[in-house]
Amino acid sequence: MSSGRGASGKSAALRAGELRRLIAHHRKRYYVDDDPEISDAEYDELERELREIEREHPELITPDSPTQRVGGQPSEAFETFRHGRPLLSLDNAYDREELAEWERRLRRQLGGEPSTYAVEPKVDGLSVAVHYRHGVLERGVTRGDGTVGEDVTPNVRTIRSIPLRLSRDVPFVEARGEVYMPRKAFEELNRQRLAEGQPVFANPRNSAAGTVRLLDSRITAARRLDCLFYALEQYEGGPAPEAHWESLELLRELGLKTNPESASCPDLDAVMGYIERFREKRRELEYETDGVVVKVQRFDQRERAGATSKFPRWAVAFKFPAEQATTTVRNIVVQVGRTGAVTPVADLEPVQLAGTTVSRATLHNEEEVERKDIRVGDTVLIEKAGEIIPQVVKVIAAKRPPHSRPFVMPSACPVCGSAIVKEEGEVASRCTGAACPARRRETLRHFASRTAMDIQGLGEALIEQLLKRDLVKDVADLYALDGETLAGLDRMGKKSAANLLAQIEESKTRPLDRLLYALGVRHVGERASRVLARAYGSIERLAAASEEELQAVEEIGPKTARSLVTFFAQPANRTLIDRLRAAGVRMEGCATDVHPEVAASPFRDKTVVITGTLPGRSREEAKALVEAGGGRVANSVSHKTDMVIAGEAAGSKLAKAQALGVRVVDPEEFERLLRST
C-alpha cells in the first residue's frame, strides 16, 4: 500500500481522494450492506494512511473526510433549528385489540380502502434529522419538541454509521433516524461511570440522548453511538419513492444504514405474527427496543390519513410491557471500584427476569438507597434498566418486616479497612486507601504512567500477569521484583526483564512532585503536585501540614487540602510511603530542581488557554506539549490567564483575551515557542 509520506502535493491529493473513495466504499459495505470485504485492521490502515497524508498536507483536509469525525472543541450552547416538516411522536397500542382499533380508525380516514404495512423495531434512542446538500452532510438536528430541535451537527459527525458524504451527489436529502447506544457500549460506559463514582445512566436511551446533547463532541466520539434510518423525509434528486419500502432501498443505496429487521406485511394478521416472533428475538439484538412500529406503506395513503396535533394517523407503536418482578433483599453490601468509588449493591433472593436469573441489583449510591428507603428484608419491585442492569424500582412498604433498619454506608473499606469518605457536593463515597486491593490494577497503571513515575515497559498486559500470579500487591512491591521472577512471565525474556528492572530502578530518582502525583491522591493532579512539592520540599513536611496550612498555599483549595490530610491520616498509606522510602524512592527535592528543558520553556508556570483549530496538531497534543513545558492548560480565559493560543475559528475566548489584554499567540508563534526549548 502506498504512503503519503514525502509525497508531492499533486500525488498526495490524488491518493487522498482515492483513500476517501475506498473508505466510503468499505464503510457502506460494513454498516449498510453488512457484508465487509476487508478486515477491521485493513480498514484502520486506510484511515491511518489518510490521516498521515492530511497531517503532511493540511490543505487537503475536506469537511467530509473520514478523519474529521473526531470531536472538536466544546461548544458553549446549541443553536435551535426549525424542522421543515414536524417530527411527530407516535400513538401507542398495547395489545391486538388496540392495534385493530387503530386500523379501523385508519380505514375510516381512507374510505374503507385496505392498506399494506411496513413494520420495524422501535429502537429506544433519540430521533434525529440529518440533511445532505450535494451529497455532503450539512446538518444534524434533534427531534426537540417536534417543531424545533437543537443543531447537534458536531456530535452527529462523530457517529461512524452516519456518512459524511453520500454515495452520490444529490441536491438535497433529509433522512430521519434513531441514534442509539449499543448494549455493549452502554454496559462499558456504566461500568466506567461506576468505577469513577459517577451516577450510571438508567438505560441506553438516556445515555444516547445525553451523549448526543453533550457540548463536548470529543466525549460523544468516544461513546460509540450508532444510527438506524427509518424515513426519507425529503429527496431532491429525481423521482421520489411512492412507498416506504422503496424509500428504505433508496436510503441504503445512498449509503444510509437502515434496520435489517424491517419487514413488509400484507395485513394485520401478518403484523401480529411479526410482533410475536420479534417479542423473543429482540433480546438478541445489539440495541434496546421496547416495541414495534407499524406504518402504512403507500405515501399517498399517508397523505390522505393525515395527522392529529400530536400523532400521524398512518403509524402506531406497538409497545411491549416493561418486565418486572418482585423479590426480597437478603443483604446490602458495598463493592469498591477501580478508582476507589464505593457502591452499595442489593443481594437479592434469585428471581427470573427478562430471560435471566437476577440475584444482585445496583443501588447506585448512598443517596439513592436513602431516597427509596431500601432495607435488608424488604420486598422490592425490580426491573432491568434497558433490559441490561437490574435495578430496584420501589419498595413494597406493606411487606416490610418489623424492626428493619435503614442502610448506613460503612465507615471503613470492606477490602482494606481504610476510611470511606464522601466529599461535600459529591454523590459517591470513596475508599482512601492507596494500596487497596480493589484498586490495584488502576493504581499500578497510574503509578507507572509517563507523567507519574514513568516506568516504561510496565503496561496493562504485564500488570495483569503480576496481579494474576500474586507477585505484586501494591506499588511498593514493584521495587522488590527480580530478574528471575520477571523472566518467567509470558513474553518476558532475560533482556526484557533486565530492561524493565532498569526502568524501575530509574523511577526511584523521580522528584517529589512525580511521586505525589503517582500516589493518586484525590484532587491532586500534576499541577497541584508541583505546587505542593515546591511549597514543602519533602513528603514528611507535606504529611505534617494541616488543612489550614495547605489552603494557604496558592492554587490549593479546601477539597485538595482535605483530601491530602485524609490520605496521610490512613495507617495503610503511611506504611506504603515507608516501604517506598526503604526501597530507595526519592521523597524530597523538587522545589527548585526542574528539568533543563522545562526550566527553559516559555510555558513554565504559565496559565494557558487553547482555542480554535491548530493546523497539524490536535488540541490534546497541544495541551500535552504545554504541560510538558511546565504550563497549566485552563478551559476559560480570565485575568489570571498568561497566554491564549488561538487557532482558526477561535471565537469568544480570543475576543475575551483581547479585551483583557492577555497575550495572544497564533499557531506559527506557538510552533516557534515549542522549538525554542
Question: What do these coordinates show?
Answer:
The chain is α+β, with helices and mostly antiparallel strands. It is 36% helix and 20% strand. It contains 25 helices and 22 strands. α24 links the parallel β21 (643-646) and β22 (663-665). The two termini are 37 Å apart.
What is the topology?
Elements: H1 9-31, H2 40-56, E1 80-82, E2 92-93, H3 96-109, E3 117-123, E4 126-133, E5 136-142, E6 148-150, H4 153-156, E7 172-180, H5 183-195, H6 204-212, H7 217-222, E8 226-236, H8 244-254, E9 263-265, H9 268-281, E10 289-296, H10 299-305, E11 315-319, E12 324-336, E13 341-353, E14 356-362, H11 366-372, E15 379-385, E16 389-395, E17 420-421, E18 429-431, H12 440-448, H13 460-468, H14 483-487, H15 494-507, H16 512-518, H17 526-536, H18 539-544, H19 547-551, H20 558-569, H21 571-582, H22 596-599, E19 607-611, H23 619-628, E20 632-634, E21 643-646, H24 652-660, E22 663-665, H25 667-675
Parallel strand pairs: 2-11, 19-20, 19-21, 21-22
Antiparallel strand pairs: 1-6, 3-9, 3-10, 4-5, 4-7, 7-8, 10-11, 12-13, 12-15, 13-14, 13-18, 15-16, 17-18
List keywords for this structure.
677 residues; Helix Hairpins; D-amino Acid Aminotransferase, Chain A, domain 1; 20% strand; 5 domains; 25 helices; OB fold (Dihydrolipoamide Acetyltransferase, E2P); 5-stranded mixed β-sheet; disordered N terminus; alpha+beta
Oligomer: single chain
CATH fold type of the largest domain: D-amino Acid Aminotransferase, Chain A, domain 1
Approximate helicity band: 25-40%
List how many beta strands DSSP finds.
22
User: What is the count of structural domains?
Assistant: 5
Q: Specify the structural class.
A: alpha+beta
Q: Identify the overall geometry.
A: globular
Q: Write the CATH architecture name of the largest domain.
A: 2-Layer Sandwich
CATH class of the largest domain: Alpha Beta
Distance between the termini: 37 Å
The chain-level mean pLDDT equals 86
Largest sheet: 7 strands, antiparallel
What percentage of the residues does DSSP assign to strands (E)? 15-25%
Count helical runs.
25
> Unreliable runs, pLDDT <50, ≥5 residues?
1-6, 71-76
Radius of gyration: 29 Å
